[in-house]
Amino acid sequence: MPRTTTVESPGCPPLRALTADVLGLVKVVQANGGQDGGAAKVVERWGEPDASKCVLATSILDRETDPLLGVARKCGSVDIISAITGNLHASIPSLFPADEDSVIGLHLFRKHQSNPSPRSFKIHACTTKGLAVLTSTEPGGDHASHAKHNVCGRGNILCSKVDESENYAIYGGKGVEVNAWDLQEGKRIWAAKSPPVNSLGIFTPTFFTSVSFLCKDDHRKFVAGTGSHQVRLYDISSQRRPVLSVDFRETPIKAVDADIDGQTVYVGNASGDLASFDMRTGKLLGCFTGKCSGSIRSISRHPQLPVIASCGLDCYLRIWNVKSRQLLSDVFLKQHLTSVVFDSHFQSKADQSAEVAVPAPALDMESVELETTPFKRKKFAKGKSRSKKSKSMSRGSTEDEEDED
Q1: How far is CA 205 from the centre of its chain?
Q2: Which one of 6, 216, 252, 307 is least enclosed by Cβ atoms within 10 Å?
Q3: How would you write the pLDDT of the chain (405 residues) with one tens digit per residue?
Q4: H or E segment at 351?
Q5: Nearest by Cα to 38 from 17, 15, 56
Q6: Cα–Cα distance between 26 and 38 in angstroms, integer?
């Protein structure tokens, strides 16, 4: 019999994640740290099951006050809901014709210079046919298209990503090489070049499934996953072909997300394998230990805590430790999951109670009397030495009297 050891999960730190599935439901998964052993569990469910409202893409406006969640649905509408209560803030109906096109990427802008009202927001959406739209919504619910541009002439777009500065975006797909666009000017600034044929003279078809920017401060470096189970690193300022390319298992890459250190990348594929790579050298740092039985469709790195979340077609949300790559918690959510995002400003009840400090009583300095304590050790030493001297002198005087006698 082989030796087996049972490793107990240390539990999740206090966190809050929002998941979306194929039935249009948004579920809130929460872990309270020390409470209940740190196990994550479902605390809320928003919406009613409807296959026509399948969630295709999500984006969270992560802020401390009034965070928002953008949800792009299969019916062609985009809903903006509160990430705290689930209440509907605004809805953009039929942004794209549902029978002809579908949304594959969504982004909620943090910076909205034209109208700083908290009820107004700006979104970026892209469809499979390559139509990218910038739309702003006003407090009254009216929306107007600011800009539209077609990012591909042929093929299908499968992935898109907006950088941290919200000035650039990257698109890629099946038959479409990854290309970078300037959102302010609405024009393409860079396009990748297909890699050369291999040693057997076989050309690898273009098939990009996911993209992510490597560093928040630099829009020139990004990572792309392909259908030929490759992870490629591109540098816009260096060359049009990949700077680095590594293979991972034998199934297509389905999800890619970068770490906050700007070096590590988390990769998930269609067979449920999850691993981390160091993109400076292309070295495989290790695989995440746990049982994943379905395709991974979304990976999200927590902005502050050392954890990532993954979800996919096996209906499980899993929370992992990025350092030990150990499974911290898993939650069964009953439906095929399409995306997961973190609410980084969540605080558990234990944390909130710990922050409430009891004020210490104020000291009245006028009523405090300063007492000067004598330095007893020195006085005692002097007294002791004097007594010894007096004894020695008395002994000497008695001896002199005896001699006189």
Answers
A1: 32
A2: 6
A3: 444 445 566 678 999 999 999 999 999 999 987 655 678 999 999 999 999 999 999 999 999 988 999 999 999 999 999 999 999 998 888 778 777 889 999 999 987 545 555 567 889 999 999 999 998 876 555 555 567 889 998 899 999 999 999 999 999 999 999 999 999 898 999 999 988 887 788 888 899 999 999 998 999 999 999 999 999 999 999 999 999 999 999 999 999 999 999 999 999 999 999 999 999 999 999 999 877 788 999 999 999 999 999 999 999 999 999 999 999 999 999 999 999 999 999 986 555 555 544 444 444 444 434 344 444 444 444 444 455 545 455 555 545 545 544
A4: helix 349-355
A5: 15
A6: 22
What's the CA gap between 277 and 246, in Å, rounded? 9
Token readout for 223 is: 């990572």
- Region of residue 24 (phi > 0: left; psi between -120 and 50: alpha; otherwise: beta): left
CA dihedral 254, 275, 347, 30 (to 10 degrees): 60
Q: Which strands sit side by side in the sheet containing 296-301, from one edge to the other?
A: 296-301, 307-312, 316-321, 327-332
Q: Residue 22 is which amino acid? A: V
CA distance 146 to 112: 12
**Distances, alpha carbon 267 to alpha carbons 171, 179, 295, in Å:** 18, 21, 12
CA nearest 17: which of 343, 339, 240?
A: 343
User: For residue 138, what are the CA distances in angstroms to 76, 103, 135, 144, 277?
Assistant: 20, 22, 10, 9, 42
CB-based contacts of 116: which residues, under 8 Å, 6+ apart? Answer: none
Contact 315, 347 (CB under 8 A): no
Element (H, E) at 245: strand 244-247
Residue 375, phi then psi, degrees to nearest 5? -85, 85
R_g of the chain, CA atoms, integer Å? 33
DSSP category for residue 138: -
Give the number of residues written for the chain: 405
Torsion of Cα atoms, 342 then 343 then 344 then 347, to 10°:
-130
